[in-house]
Request: fold
Amino acid sequence: MNALSIENLYKTYRNGFEALKGISLEVKDGDFFALLGPNGAGKSTAIGIVASLVNKTAGKVSIFDYDLDREREPAKQQIGLVPQEFNFNQWEPVVEILVNQAGYYGIPRREAFVRAQKSLKRLDLWEKRSSQARALSGGMKRRLMIARALVHQPRLLILDEPTAGVDIEIRRSMWDFLREINGQGTTIILTTHYLEEAENLCRNIGIINHGRIVEQTRLTTLLSQLNTEVFILDTHQTLSEVPKLPGYRLNLVDKQTLEVEVHREQTMNTLFEALSVQGIQVASMRNKQNRLEQLFIDLVGRSRLPRDAAT
Amino acid sequence: MNRGSLYLTAYRTIVIKEILRFSRIWVQTILPPAITTTLYFVIFGKLIGERIGEMGGYSYIDFIVPGLILMSVIQNSYANVVSSFFSTKLQHYIEELLIAPVPNWVVLAGYVSGGVARGTIVGFVVTLISLFFTDLSVHSYALTLVVFVLTSVLFALGGFINAVYAKTFDDVSIVPTFVLTPLTYLGGIFYSIELLPEFWQSVSLGNPILYMVNAFRHGLLGVSDINIGLALLIICAFIAALVAFSLNLLKRGVGIKK
Reply:
């Protein structure tokens, strides 16, 4: 079963801007799906339509086979949304924000308090339950939005850049939490500008650009399309010139740092052996660019070409 | 989940949220109308009223009490919904409701009930204050209650529509300042329209608040410048029109959806 099916979705705003030009997308039940795209590509509009925050121009949206137009209420019951911007009443106590949200889904107040307590404890916000939301730090506000989105136990959780502006420690703990709830069966759709995040968390990926889906595939399939990767090698020895290694393109970044381009058919073992023969020991290595980032730039750049050419 | 239970829980949630909201800021919501109305009673009722003498067969302070109670109900029912729903839009937490499986009519009913709750509490406080200045008699409890509630519903709906269209805080205050206050003051709170020249009497009949004030006064004192049946009909017609209009705005997502 699909958690989300989008067919030929169009959105044209009143000013004539075509945000979506007939996108179709399927996200399987239980998936951890990344919806990526540059700013203004149409990600938030698509999510807004699925979450009933934006009126569509044409097309069909189904959530767990419930048609969002014809079976609105059961369809909406399935979704939890963590939007990009903080959208809670800043003056309301934290616990009330959750209790009210549960109430909108028909959960009686007493049960809503129990659920709110559980969610707030799980996301380390219980101590702040009586504080007004405006008194929370940025990271806490993000967690509050996640807790609120989960209070009615949705089967599909949509996160629109949930870790924007959040420090590394909190981001990592959010990743663990999202992995955990995905493991428990919640389907997750994530949009993010941190491609490392998508690569770490997601199994499938859709890339949207200029209102069109330019790629939808498994993350592993996408990464296997990568022909070359650029690595940064830190060496034990001080280098005065670029070592000569046939088949590899090398660059000296500084006296102890080499940049090397490795093709898909080449192995790292061969590279290390060749360097070792020349008396160069590698102390550490890292990707120059995130792998997904490299592909993303390629795909987005390619999809931009016809438009640029036309203008 | 049963639909009826979902709707009822969602409705109760909105109403409780609204009551908690205006209760938390009672210094801004309950106290000011109590002080203002006390001043009206002291200045217009006692100091000036005693020199005016009788109006409609009652002492002046007795005559203005129903209008002042209803004025506070009108202003507070309107103000509660317009400010609350506008804040909901401004801070984007309207999205909490838009994403949830709450039908538009439940959203409307919840906000209007919140406005009625504030109107009722303020109206009750003003009525208690009036007891310090006059012996309040009730001619018809049923009519008094019906007009009280219907008027509150009507102006809560007005506040809702204002909030839907409002884009700035100025838009929230324009209607109460330039439309509601003049119509309320000219709606027969402080005088009987019989005092006006014939032309202005006819003009006054175009003011819907006149019908509400007079119907409420009839409920309390048993005197009115207008036909009570017509007054009730007009109030109900306005409510029906505003409900239909509000639901249409919500359906189209005016001011709340992109």
Observations:
- The longest helix of chain A spans residues 291-310.
- The domain at 2-223 of chain A is CATH 3.40.50.300 (Rossmann fold).
- The longest strand of chain A covers residues 2-12.
